[in-house]
Amino acid sequence: MGLRPDVDFVVLDHAPEPGGAWQFRWPSLTYGKVHGMHALPGMELTGADDGRPSSEVIGEYFTRYEDAFGLRVHRPVHVGAVREGAGGRLLVETSEGTYAARALINATGTWDRPFWPRYPGQETFRGRQLHTAQYPGPEAFAGQRVVVVGGGASGTQHLMEIAEVAAGTTWVTRRPPVFREGPFGEVQGRAAVALVEERVRKGLPPRSVVSVTGLPMNDAIRRARERGILDRLPMFDRITPEGVAWDDGRTVEADVILWATGFRAAIDHLAPLKLREPGGGIAVEGTRAVRDERVHLVGYGPSASTIGANRAGRAAVHEIERLLHQGPPAGPSDDPQPPVGPAGDLAAVPG
Length: 351
Prior knowledge:
The chain has helices at 54-69, 153-162, 186-201, 209-213, 219-226, 306-325, and strands spanning 9-12, 79-84, 90-94, 97-101, 103-106, 128-131, 145-149, 168-173, 179-180, 215-216, 232-234, 238-239, 243-245, 251-253, 256-259, 284-285, 288-289, 292-297, 347-350. With 351 residues, it is α/β, with parallel strands linked by helices. The strands form five sheets. Strands 1-19-5-18-17-16 form a six-stranded mixed sheet. A five-stranded parallel sheet has the order 6-15-7-8-11, covered by helices on one side. Strands 2-3-4 form a three-stranded antiparallel sheet, with no helix packed on it. A hairpin with a 2-residue loop joins β16 (284-285) and β17. The longest helix is centred in the C-terminal third of the chain and has 20 residues, at 306-325. The two termini are 20 Å apart.
């Protein structure tokens, strides 16, 4: 589009290295185990070793990409809040100064907001509780009794790994898991995206991918089911000092409760703009926030995948280009011009 890094746009990332959330994934999640990494525009990811940790493979790929295209990503930079500024600009308050932007692409994902459900007695548990975001790999659970909570892809992967070294495992989910047989092609993918899209268009929080697509059946899952590792129990009713318990009298003793309960969108910094709908989410048309055409969300709802983010990023940039050519939107004009950060002020992109 002819836009110049640090002149026409700036990319802000609070992570320490390139790679987004991938850099924080557990070492046992090798590249061969991921659902797929769609290439970023203009550079294929080729020759990757399926046995290497995905955090390394994808982190290195993102590094090469940033260098090749000279994106000049600012990191680590924390975005604290985005507010209304003067002259129709958005004030993006960051740890390196305040940017006055005419448009914003918010690509903050979900990794920074792990979801921890609350259950009676949780604070009394004498063992260890941790979330997928803190999962260190299966070796940390050797010889222990582990309750894995959550029916998504991470939960099943954790469970199958931990079962090889633990004294015992118990799988607990709110809903019975649905395993998907057969191929998942373009038609099925479009149908899944359409369901997520419908929710965000209504201003409802996006649901997890697995709730729409189901869990893909593969040889590893078939073997785990045959061995009884994936025998699921309904959600427990309370947590005790020794483990978990159900109202029907059943109890399971545990040393560890692993919450593989997903993540929520990391959008608290947008709160001053009052973009949320009564349903709790941000209503989005394409990538554009319905309540503010200057704000685009990439990686939110239907674009929460690498292929979805590619398409959404392209659409967002085209819409922003159209908006900028229209001139600044109406906004407060009697305030003094807000401070502009140390780089360009057309589009700030928290990552």
